[in-house]
Amino acid sequence: MSDPLIDAALAVRLNAYAKFSNFRVGAAIEDFEGRIHTGCNVENATYGLTVCAERVAVFKAISEGVGIRKFRRVAVAADTEILTPPCGACRQILWEFCGDIPVVLVNLHSKTETYQLKDLLPRAFDASYL
Ligand code: THU
Question: What H or E segment, with its residue span, contains residue 12?
């Protein structure tokens, strides 16, 4: 059975600007109204200015007016046999804007695994400490 969130992550992955790593990633995030917001990694010749797919998707959604913690789940697509998880920086950003949502990992063979964000980012730092 196909999952529109996974399909969106796989589709947007093809838009990745990944000419330095050749490692294309797609992310799709579903909000509480069922809308899907997508992002791909966007690299830069200076390397350090690269932005991951997950952050592009979250920032697009927030900038379109989706409220903080109004997201149901996120999917991350990459072409690896061992499924690619979000990097540490993206885990922190996902926590800030989404809280403890399921993170669905998928590869090009439709292999999937789902993790709760709290298990990927245990004892997260957030605004509750400030
Ligand atoms: N990347 C992502 O977009 N998301 C991840 O979860 C892991 C890494 C990107 C950053 C960079 O463009 C390329 O993958 C290699 O690290």
Answer: helix 4-13
Do the beta carbons of residue 9 and residue 105 sit within 8 Å?
Answer: no
Check: CB of residue 109 under 8 Å from CB of residue 74: no
- What is the crossing angle of helices 88-98 and 53-63, to 10°? 20
Give the pLDDT of the chain (130 residues) as one tens digit per residue.
Answer: 799 999 999 999 999 999 999 999 999 999 999 999 999 999 999 999 999 999 999 999 999 999 999 999 999 999 999 999 999 999 999 999 999 999 999 999 999 999 999 999 999 999 999 9
Alpha helix stretches (DSSP H) within 15-129 = 53-63, 88-98, 117-120
Element (H, E) at 31: strand 25-31
Q: How far is the CA of 53 from the centre of ligand 1 (A)?
A: 7
8 A C-beta contact, residue 55 and residue 89: yes
Q: Which of 30, 33, 43, 54 is catalytic?
A: 54
Q: Is 54 a catalytic residue?
A: yes
